[in-house]
């Protein structure tokens, strides 16, 4: 736009106020919708990741380097409790819990089922997992709990036992000895995850150590970061701290829960397909507006060519008009989208029935859209870009105009 | 020194199955500073000749030279540049840009030429004063009378200091008084600024202002005479 005035482009926009406002209105609507939707999407992913990870796996786990691919009992870490304590002390991090895992046959007086027995530090497990908070009958394990067990509600139903009943388990220890015990059920939990409710049982790590002949060894240390953005930094700190420990792997949640990442990617793909449809619709609206605007000004463009303007000057004028219109839609759309999204990010967003589910499964009762530069700018910038692309066709039509024919146009 | 030379210009148009002759082997030489009127009935070829000289339309055959440059062979870009720097147009329907004020319309061509903002603003004010539109600089075309709009169009045409002004029926939409004022303005510009004028008209009052009168019929020049112009005392 070195030669042709921006002022002319701006005034041209307002020749048909209603038509321009309709197109700008479509941009404002789609831009604010995109800001809200993308922010909500980011917020819901964070919530989804948090909820999934806080249920069990944590953001980071320290494991034996072969444990992820081959979760055998022999792939363990030595002095697991001391290592977990070292992390707490040196990283000033309380959200660290050591665990050991074994498999056993659990029996009540009537029935037997195969279960996963998880040895945990009762004091710290609540900091890395939501299960202690999901106990709906009885209580969770205590600091000095020994021959006590907490089991999933489905498992309790299947075994036909309740809080206060005894349960016998029989498994194999680290040294291939029998790992057997009789424990009292002190609580049952309901996580909302069928696998956990049907198979998981938790005992104190001390009791697990004795029963499964672990001799102080364990299988993982779960770590929970303050938020998802802090995970990479925390992982690097842990790796630096424990770099001398052999056979140790520090696993990011994406390695621990590959399905979660894939689910997010799949959701993102389908959401972007919808966004793309919206963006294309807006682009067609711009194309329609600009094409009509160019066609009805053919005579005027002919005059301008007669005065000495080149088709390239006229094309730039049309693109400048679209740029101004898109910028208006972009700024107002971002402003409207920001205000709505910011309000909902403060008070939260919920739909009917969400609160009941949240109470039942120990989840947040509202979703909070996450506003960041990407969620704020990505969608509106794509709308602006698509609008500019849409203006190329009417702009290039001007190259075909001949001054004398254009000036005869009605 | 001749400024415009047309050699054996031919142009035909197709209208349905019929072929209409616009220009039929037209030869014409217009010297710098001349005030020429092209007259003749509708369809005689006046506008076609103006369009060809102005580079708005290309002839089927023949040559058009302007200051030694053969303009009928120029590509779109150089032809646009040639119009921008050498030719001013005045149209029957004024053809002002409706969203710009009188001042902005006059500045428009200078802006495209790359004249600095302050310089073109001052120049536009001076020219509007010269054409008698002081105080109307900020009015848009819709707020001006036909005569005033045509004065703005003339101001726009001469603002870029063209060597040649081509006017196609410039008084067709004007009343007698406005026509006289416009023609006096053209005569003045021709005399004082040595701007060459070629005006297509079938208005006898306009022809009276010309120093040279060329009559056309069926795309041919049937007479080409010098005459003493009659200047309006108003």
Question: Briefly, what is this?
Answer:
The complex is a heterodimer of chains A (410) and B (234). Chain A is an alpha+beta fold and 410 residues long.
Commentary on this structure:
The complex is a heterodimer of chains A (410) and B (234). Chain A is built from 16 helices and 10 strands. Chain A is of the alpha+beta class. In chain A, strands 2-3-8-5-7-6 form a 6-stranded mixed β-barrel, surrounded by 4 helices. The longest helix of chain A has 41 residues, at 17-57. The radius of gyration of chain A is 31 Å and the shape is elongated. Chain B is of the alpha/beta class and 234 residues long. In chain B, β4 (61-66) and β5 (69-70) form a beta hairpin. Chain B starts with a strand and ends in an 8-residue tail after the last strand. The mean pLDDT of chain B is 90. The chains are: A alpha+beta (410), B alpha/beta (234).
Highlighted features:
heterodimer, A: 410 residues, alpha+beta, 16 helices, B: 234 residues, alpha/beta, Rossmann fold, 6-stranded mixed β-sheet, 29% strand
């Amino acid at each position: 736009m070195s030669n042709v005035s921006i002022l002319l482009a701006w005034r041209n926009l307002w020749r048909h106020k209603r038509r321009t406002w309709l197109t700008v209105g479509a941009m404002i609507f789609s831009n604010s919708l995109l800001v809200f939707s993308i922010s909500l999407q980011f917020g819901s992913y964070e919530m989804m990741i948090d909820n999934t990870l806080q249920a069990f796996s944590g953001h980071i786990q320290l494991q034996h380097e072969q444990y992820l691919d081959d979760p055998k009992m022999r792939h363990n870490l030595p002095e697991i409790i001391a290592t977990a304590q070292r992390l707490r002390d040196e990283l000033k991090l309380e959200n660290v819990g050591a665990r050991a895992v074994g498999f056993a046959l659990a029996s009540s007086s009537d029935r037997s089922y195969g279960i996963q027995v998880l040895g945990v530090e009762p004091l710290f497990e609540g900091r890395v997992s939501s299960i202690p908070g999901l106990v709906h009958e009885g209580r969770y394990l205590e600091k000095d709990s020994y021959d006590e067990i907490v089991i999933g509600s489905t498992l309790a139903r299947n075994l036909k036992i309740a809080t206060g009943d005894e349960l016998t388990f029989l498994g194999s220890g680290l040294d291939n000895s029998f790992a057997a015990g009789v424990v009292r059920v002190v609580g049952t939990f309901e996580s909302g995850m069928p696998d956990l409710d049907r198979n998981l049982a938790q005992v104190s790590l001390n009791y697990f150590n004795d029963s499964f002949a672990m001799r102080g060894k364990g299988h993982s240390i779960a770590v929970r970061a303050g938020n998802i953005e802090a995970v990479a930094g925390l992982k690097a700190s842990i790796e630096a701290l424990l770099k001398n420990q052999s056979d140790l792997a520090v696993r990011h949640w994406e390695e621990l829960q590959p399905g979660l990442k894939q689910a997010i990617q799949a959701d993102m793909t389908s959401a972007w397909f919808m966004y793309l449809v919206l963006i294309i619709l807006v682009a067609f609206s711009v194309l329609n507006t600009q094409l009509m605007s160019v066609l009805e000004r053919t005579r005027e463009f002919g005059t301008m060519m007669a005065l000495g303007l080149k088709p390239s000057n006229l094309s730039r004028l049309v693109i400048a008009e679209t740029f101004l219109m898109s910028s208006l839609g972009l700024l107002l759309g971002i402003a409207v989208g920001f205000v709505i999204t910011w309000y909902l990010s403060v008070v939260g967003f919920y739909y009917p029935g969400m609160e009941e589910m949240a109470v039942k499964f120990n989840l947040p009762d509202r979703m909070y859209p996450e506003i960041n530069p990407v969620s704020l700018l990505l969608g509106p910038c794509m709308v602006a870009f698509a609008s500019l692309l849409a203006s190329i066709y009417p702009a290039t039509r001007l190259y075909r105009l001949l001054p004398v024919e254009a000036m005869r146009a009605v | 020194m001749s400024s415009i030379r047309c050699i054996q210009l031919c142009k035909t148009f197709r209208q349905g199955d019929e072929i209409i002759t616009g220009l039929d082997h037209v030869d014409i030489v217009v010297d710098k500073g001349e005030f020429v009127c092209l007259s003749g009935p509708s369809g005689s070829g006046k506008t076609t000749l103006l369009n060809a000289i102005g580079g708005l339309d290309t002839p089927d055959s023949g040559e058009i030279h302007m200051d030694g440059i053969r303009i009928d062979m120029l590509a779109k870009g150089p032809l646009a540049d040639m119009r921008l720097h050498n030719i001013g147009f005045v149209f029957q329907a004024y053809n002002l840009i409706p969203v710009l004020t009188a001042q902005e319309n006059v500045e428009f061509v200078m802006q495209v030429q790359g004249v600095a903002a302050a310089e073109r603003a001052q120049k536009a004010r001076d020219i509007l004063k010269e054409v008698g539109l002081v105080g109307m600089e900020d009015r848009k075309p819709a707020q001006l009378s036909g005569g005033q709009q045509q004065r703005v169009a003339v101001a726009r045409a001469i603002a870029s200091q063209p060597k040649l002004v081509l006017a196609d029926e410039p008084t067709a939409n004007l009343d007698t008084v406005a026509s006289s004022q416009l023609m006096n303005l053209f005569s003045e510009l021709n005399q004082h600024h040595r701007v060459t004028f070629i005006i297509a008209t079938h208005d006898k009052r306009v022809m009276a202002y010309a120093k040279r009168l060329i009559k056309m019929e069926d795309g041919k020049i049937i007479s080409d005479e010098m005459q003493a112009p009659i200047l309006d005392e108003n």
